[in-house]
Design a protein that fits this description.
single chain, 84 residues, mainly alpha, 3 helices
Length: 84
């Protein structure tokens, strides 16, 4: 098994090298190369370029948060029903 993330920052080494980041420096995950308010790790996770300003849209994050809350409520409901 080849380690493709030597600094364990959540971004693959080849992606970091391609985008001008340091694959052995974990702190670059929290920096924001293009100043758009999204750190480099988030840019990797959403598939955007950390060198190109992206106007962040809160809509997808809100949708994901609502879905997560619904799933959590459903899960807790199932656990509660099993204990009855």
């Amino acid at each position: 098994h080849i380690d493709t993330d030597d600094d364990n920052d959540g971004m693959p080494d080849d992606w970091e090298i391609f985008h001008g980041l340091n694959p052995i420096e974990p702190s670059d995950a929290s920096t924001d190369l293009d100043g758009d308010g999204l750190n480099n790790l988030t840019e990797y996770q959403i598939g955007s370029d950390p060198n190109v300003y992206t106007s962040p849209s809160p809509f997808p994050l809100v949708v994901l948060l609502v879905i997560a809350i619904i799933v959590l409520i459903a899960f807790l409901g199932i656990l509660f029903m099993r204990k009855l």
